Amino acid sequence: MSFSDLFDSEFKQRNKGHFSAIVRVALADGIVHPEEKNFLDKLASRLEISETEYEEILNDPLKYPINPPYLHVQRLERLYDLTRMVHVDHHLEDQQEVMLRKLGIALGFTPSNVNYIIAKALSLVDKKVDADTFVYEMQHMHK
């Protein structure tokens, strides 16, 4: 196995773990709503999750380990990616903030400040800032 194959394999496993965590969030209330299903479909495509893997994860989201971001910067980077995906998917409309709050809590942001964080994240993504600007602004939003 070459080094690049090892990297690709680890990257795919991390994506499966990340997708599995998001499926768990969507299933937290016992059902996957149509808006959440549409989001999961698009997310699976972006994370290069095959249809077989997708069905496997939906049926048993506990099968893949969660790889939560340890560093605050990594959480912000994932939040940036997820916020952009949710923001682009206008099918969610009013549900976009609800979905992002769930995802924000799953990423490790506290329930007491997740509303403020999501509002700021949506505001920045609406302005079409790049990832570096997003992370900087999120890190300095209380200053």
From TrEMBL:
SUPFAM superfamilies cross-referenced by the UniProt entry: TerB-like
Organism of this sequence: Flavobacterium pectinovorum
Lineage: Bacteria, Pseudomonadati, Bacteroidota, Flavobacteriia, Flavobacteriales
Membrane-spanning segments: none
Annotated Co-chaperone DjlA N-terminal domain residues: 20-57
Coiled-coil ranges (or none): none
Pfam families: TerB
Protein name stated in the entry: Fructose 1,6-bisphosphatase
Domain of life: Bacteria
